[in-house]
Amino acid sequence: MTEILQTPKRVTVFGGSGFLGRHVVRALARRGYQVRAACRRPDLAGHLQPLGNVGQIRAVQANLRVRWSVDRAVEGADHVVNLVGILSESGRQRFAAVHDFGARAVAEAARAAGVGLTHVSALGASAESPSVYARSKAAGERAVFETIPEAVILRPSIVFGPEDRFFNRFANLARFSPVLPLIGGGETRFQPIYVGDVAEAVARSVDGAVAGGRIYEIGGPEVETFRECMEAMLRVIDRKRTLVPVPWGLASLQAAILGLLPNPLLTTDQVALLKSDNVVSEEAMREGRTLAAFDVRPQSLEAILPSYLWRYRAAGQFTRRTEA
Q1: Which pLDDT value is given to residue 7?
Q2: Residue 52 pLDDT
Q3: How far apart, in whole angstroms, are the C-alpha atoms of residue 281 and residue 318?
Q4: Which CATH number applies to 10-160+192-219+279-299?
Q5: Where are the domains of the chain?
Q6: Virtual CA dihedral for 34, 58, 81, 150, nearest 10 degrees?
């Protein structure tokens, strides 16, 4: 008797070509899913093809501000993942448009298709936050649950990995500047989580490994202050730099100027966000809404940072390492 092979599930990943997206696409492809990476510039998503078998990964055009493109990207999918987010506003890319309106558009498209949804938000999302970014993230979560009550929402702390915009940016700054700023004194606490661990959690939510209708707060194995993150980065790149505490008022003034640049190092909204710790809450731990629910063992900064920050070490001080 001829065995009938089951067609692999089709998963649409909005933001599939981005920093987190490429790792999510890889995790899904390894499971045998057919992956549709929905992004604004599919012509720039060629780096996704080697992550799976021939024909397994396809990039399609979609813009969360254009509803018909969202519906088209979802059509025929069995599950939808929304990873789209911005750290600062520019042009028509506004927090409300991407995190709120966009999240609702994706959720409504998934509901119309009758499929599940995994939505990635951020730790610190709160309607009461002084940060517009955090308030828009909270609005997006509300839109998702209003549309699909059984959706899975993940709130990661700061995500690190080969293409991150945190450690890479400060490591690059350390190449040229003798000092590094510690916003607000550098006491803000983070729970850095490796991008591969976040991607695995997303993939396991697609597998149906966790209960829906819940917000999961996910962080790495260590809680580190801003200062400790900078010290860890400097140890890896083997550079000595002076860490200078910058009071909140001065940081806001500097951010107001830096925020005018096309790709700002710091914005006033990010300063507001840094005034609150970015760690998994005690409530989430009590209720089992953490990374442990996904049965993922998080990797540490010490284990991962050297695999990609080696390029920022002083010339002649290192032997080139192959990136993971």
Answers
A1: 60
A2: 86
A3: 39
A4: 3.40.50.720
A5: 10-160+192-219+279-299
A6: -40
Q: Token digits for 131?
A: 């940060």
Q: Which of 32, 65, 93 is nearest to 263 (CA)?
A: 93
Contact 100, 143 (CB under 8 A): yes
Cα(17)–Cα(32) distance, rounded to whole angstroms?
A: 18
Among 4-18, 224-238, 290-304, 308-322, the minimum mean pLDDT is found in 308-322
What values do phi and psi take at 323, rounded to 5? -65, 145
Cβ neighbours for 286, distance < 8 A, ≥ 6 positions apart:
none
Q: What is the pTM of this model?
A: 0.93
pLDDT number for residue 145? 98
- Cα-based distances in Å from 201 to 51, 127, 198, 266: 18, 25, 5, 29
Residue 55: Cβ within 10 Å count? 8
**What is the residue-averaged pLDDT of the chain?**
93
